Amino acid sequence: MMDDPDLLARKAAYIDTIRSLYRRERAAGFVACLAGVLVLVWSRTRFDAPPWALWAGLAIIAAGWLLFVYVLVRRGAWVRAHPFESNP
After folding, report:
1. What single-letter DSSP state applies at residue 75?
2. What are the two backbone dihedrals, phi and then psi, of residue 70, each rounded to the nearest 5 degrees?
3. Are 71 and 22 in contact (CB under 8 A)?
4. Do the Cβ atoms of 19 and 78 come closer than 8 Å?
5. What does the pLDDT read at residue 4?
6. Interatomic CA distance for residues 22 and 47, integer angstroms
7. In this structure, is the dihedral angle defined by the CA atoms of residues 53, 57, 63 and 64, taken in order, positive or negative?
8. Total Cβ atoms within 10 A of residue 27
9. Are residues 86 and 7 in contact, defined by beta-carbon separation less than 8 angstroms?
């Protein structure tokens, strides 16, 4: 049985909508993880780095991961509130 082209287009649009949700927060989480890793590497490779830099790098990485988890939870809530209707 062939799928309806309109149904496939609506499903693709639905998936694109889900992917576009919380894009800024996801990007901020990625940037935070990257910055945290850079601080962590800096604190481990420089002898004159302050001792708090290690913990700051770990905290920044944890904040980035918390943003990723936040995005996952919010997207899941949106999908539960707006399920895909194959027969509108």
Report:
1. H
2. -60, -45
3. yes
4. no
5. 82
6. 39
7. positive
8. 12
9. yes
| Per-residue confidence band for 59, with pLDDT thresholds at 50, 70 and 90 | very high
In whole angstroms, give the CA distance from residue 43 to residue 60.
13
* N residues, the chain: 88
Instruction: Enumerate residues 6+ apart whose C-beta is below 8 A from 55.
Output: none
- What is the DSSP-derived secondary structure letter of residue 84? -
Which candidate, 59, 39, 58, places its Cα nearest to that of 50? Answer: 39
Q: Are 42 and 53 in contact (CB under 8 A)?
A: yes
Report residue 25 as tokens.
């927060």
**Residue position matching structure tokens 């936040």:** 70
- Is pTM beyond 0.90 here? no
Give the contacts of 42 (CB within 8 A, at least 6 positions apart).
49, 53, 57
